[in-house]
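<given_protein>
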Amino acid sequence: MNTSEQGAHSGSKLSFKTEMSFDYGVAVDVAPGVRRIVANNPGPFTFKGTNTYLVGRGDVAIIDPGPDEKAHLEAIAEATKGERISHILITHTHRDHIDALKPLKSQTNAPVLAFGPTGKPRGVRTTSPSGKAFVDLDFTPDEQMKNGDMIQGRGWALDVIHTP
């Protein structure tokens, strides 16, 4: 079903927004208590770049550390200067979202939370046509989250909602 067919059935038309105003590597407020850093890794899989979110001030949760690129890790360090990274949350294990996990974990010793080990998904391709893995099948979190959990830090709280 294309977007015009969807619109005819639902009474609204879906559109894909391609405009996005940002500077790579700069933390910007996107909601109260939430900052976003866009990694400079644009492409067909990442669109303009991978988003890393910082929740809270003082005690900070990092959601999806992003790619293991020096400039991106430096941007996270600069944005959290004088703060403590208290949690690292992983939404999914695509390489563009998780590869900075190991260096960030070694720098902060923050617990890593996710829905569980990745495992091999059935019927889903996990490598690129060139054979490079784009899903970390070996990932296991320090703590496993489940739908309905609440993750809290000083001055912030996140409700966990599983959207497979």
User: Anything to note?
Assistant: The chain has one domain: 22-157. The longest strand covers residues 84-89. Residues 22-157 form a domain with the Metallo-beta-lactamase; Chain A fold (CATH 3.60.15.10).
